[in-house]
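I keep forgetting this: the sequence line spells out the residues, with the fold written below as integer tokens. I include a record here:
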Amino acid sequence: MQLATDPATGSEGARKGDPFDIVTPADGLIERFLRTQVRDRFPGHGFLGEEEGGTSGSDGWQWIVDPIDGTLNYSTGLAGATCSIACLRHGQPVVGAIADLSAGVVYRARAGTGTVLASSAGEESGCEPTTSPAGAARVFLEFGWEDLDPVMVGTIGELARTRPRVIRMVGGAAYALLNVALHGGCMLGIGLRIWDVAAGVVLAREAGRAVRLWEEGTLVHLVVGSAEDLTELAPIVERFGSRRVAPAVA
């Protein structure tokens, strides 16, 4: 949190690939800091970071880190940027933590506890997930790319044929999952990466939300919400997710 909010770190974005895929100095600093922490505390664990890759480890444990999810938001002063950290055991997310960089709050959960904890300014307390009618009406859409294309347009068009919903695109999968976990509604993700969603999946499940996640090569598609949401919306994600392929690795 301190590295991300320190003005000396630098939030000016540089292009990684397309004009909207950027990286800031904070991304690298945070990822390297967390990599060092994991290596020192859990030397047998693997580590995978969005910016610098990683290894699988030797004992079935792997940490998955997105140092700043929603980098475009972060670089341009918008809310919705987070740091997302998850720990997987034999490929299954069992621990997740999401730091809301705008609010200065860290949310964390461990699989099987049914509890989401929030910490801020050194104090920690349990969260009480809620689902108001307004919260339940929201559907967050997150895609693994920024440019408007037929997959994005088609997904929105199919949603328009379901029951009335309020569409939100916040520019960060972890932030969207955090909001669904805490306040209800649902999220559709197409063409994402495991570091985008692993921590949020843990928080959502422990908050009582239903999750369906499937992988297609290096891409991840998912639906998170109520059981009714999964039944109604999973076919949309399956249909349009299959049309998006992972970009070639240079």
